[in-house]
Amino acid sequence: MSEAEQPELEALQAVLAAEHAAVYGYGIVGGRIGEKRRAETRAAYDAHRARRDALVREVRDLGGEPVAASAAYALPFPVPDSAAAVRLAAELEERVAGVYSDLVRASGGARRGEAAGALREAAVRAVRWRGGSVAFPGLAERADTGAAAGTTATATPSSATPTA
Asked: b/e string for 84-103 if b means 16 or more Cβ within 10 A?
């Protein structure tokens, strides 16, 4: 692997870790979400699984060993009901958008275009879940909302200390 590919591989690994966390998180969301939004939850879950699987192949294509999913992840807040599940889904999408923005920055060509498309998809899903948008999706330091400011871009494995 060339030196130029190293930052791109690191960004791909971060996106893969975020997609693992999103798949886990949507399992929680699916168990708590109301009937009206189950189809939307399933579509987001399937989209994140598909992206995760594609990322595994991309990491291997660059000569890396894909980061494994954690057995469990610490949730950013308790999710006892449908309203909290909706908030969790929005948070998952915002975090995924953040790491895709890093991949856009670290890559070029077709991969950059794919990353930008994934960032856009996550931002649109976040808007649907949250009911509103932020000025710079995926860039928490530029967002003018307390919800996006200061959040980390990746989910926190249960064995690590949260950094929200």
From this structure: bbbbbbbbbbbbbbbbbbbb
Unique residue bearing structure tokens 């794919």: 114
Question: CA 84, CA 104: separation in Å to the nearest integer?
Answer: 30
**Segment holding 73, helix H or strand E:** strand 73-74
Number of H helices, E strands in the chain: 4, 2
Question: 2 or 147: which carries more pLDDT confidence?
Answer: 2
Q: If we measure between CA atoms, which residue out of 78, 88, 103, 92 comes closest to residue 18?
A: 92
Half-sphere exposure (Cβ direction) of 141: Cα atoms closer than 13 Å: 3
Look at residue 156 and tell me whether its pLDDT is greater than 60. Answer: no
DSSP H or E stretch at residue 157: strand 156-157
Q: For residue range 46-84, what is the model confidence (pLDDT) as tens digits?
A: 999 999 999 999 999 999 999 999 999 999 999 999 999
**Based on the number of CB atoms within 10 Å of its own CB, is 152 exposed (0-12), middle (13-18) or buried (19 or more)?**
middle
Q: Helix, strand, or coil here: 127?
A: helix
- What residues pair up with 74 in beta bridges, in sequence order? 156
